[in-house]
Amino acid sequence: MYPLNFVKFHSQGNDFILIDGLKEEVDLPPHLIHHLCRRRFGVGADGVLLLLPSRVADFRMRIYNTDGSEAEMCGNGIRCLGKYVYDHGLIDRLALTVETGAGIKCLKLALREGRADRITVNMGMPVFEKSRIPMAGERGEAIQEGILIDNLTLKITALSMGNPHCVLFVDEVASAPVEKLGPLLENSRFFPQRTNVEFVSVLQRDELEARVWERGVGETLACGTGACAAAVASARSNFADRKVVVHLPGGDLEVDWQEDGYVYLTGPVVEIYQGMVLEEWLLQQYEED
Asked: What average pLDDT score do residues 265-284 get?
């Protein structure tokens, strides 16, 4: 494990540390992930991607939040992984499959000057049944459902995109109380496995604006599953069409909820740099913890 090599990626400002575990076992305890993701003290990132071999797909991905917890799925993260395996010669096809905690996902790559540039991932079908999100309460769906939290009545739409989401529609995204309501909803009794929270404004039928409070991370500049949740919730409530552009603080992502039920996420991915975490720094983190 020593030293620890990594590659830094981002999609619309949603940044990740990718560690290649194909050739050797990598030990990533939660406290080390937390230290790696700390900005100014570590590498700094919204999450850590671990690339692994798979028996059922081309590759396997594990995704960790900044607090060290493991997430089931990450739409931007899986697209960054797709760019890594193509650009670094691990696959020579423009279509590949990746095993995740939310099932096997299919990716399609578009090239620019021989390198992966824009990547589309089939995110699967959204799930609205509360028990499968999971969300506490009576069986059924939470579509524009009123809930009481911290003496506030909020109207939410809940769903799973392989991970739990809670969507609130607001008049203005810029002034939405993301830092107040985000952690309240993430850790509320309604979501036993916590939840991601989207604050969404419908600009027109094919255009949304959103901010995302990510479970285990906080507010991020972009979120792939969050963009999908925003789009699906908007369409399900008949506020928007099934194919939209989602404007996030870091840039735009495209979401297409097709008539067969599958949701496709498309956007750019960027490799920023390659680096090495020194053995001395790693050992220091173990000693401090």
From this structure: 92
- Tell me how many helices (H) and strands (E) the chain has: 5, 18
CATH superfamily for 4-122+269-288 is Diaminopimelate Epimerase; Chain A, domain 1 (3.10.310.10)
Helix, strand, coil % over all residues of the chain, rounded to 5: 20, 45, 40
Name the amino acid, one letter, at 62. Answer: R
The interaxial angle of helices 75-87 and 224-236, nearest 10 deg, is 130
- Does residue 262 have a pLDDT over 60? yes
Mean pLDDT of the chain: 95
User: Which residues line the annotated binding site?
Assistant: 14, 65, 75-76, 163, 196, 214-215, 224-225
Farthest-apart Cα atoms in the chain, separation? 55
143 pLDDT band, cuts 50/70/90, is very high
Binding-site entries for substrate: 14, 65, 75-76, 163, 196, 214-215, 224-225
d(CA 261, CA 58): 24
Local confidence band at 24 (pLDDT 50, 70, 90 cut-offs): confident
Q: Is the pLDDT confidence value at 173 over 80?
A: yes
Please identify every residue annotated as catalytic: 74, 223
One fold for 4-122+269-288 and 130-261: yes
The answer, as to whether pTM is greater than 0.85, is: yes
Which whole-number Å values give the CA distances from 90 to 22, 54, 85, 254, 279, in the listed order? 10, 13, 5, 27, 27
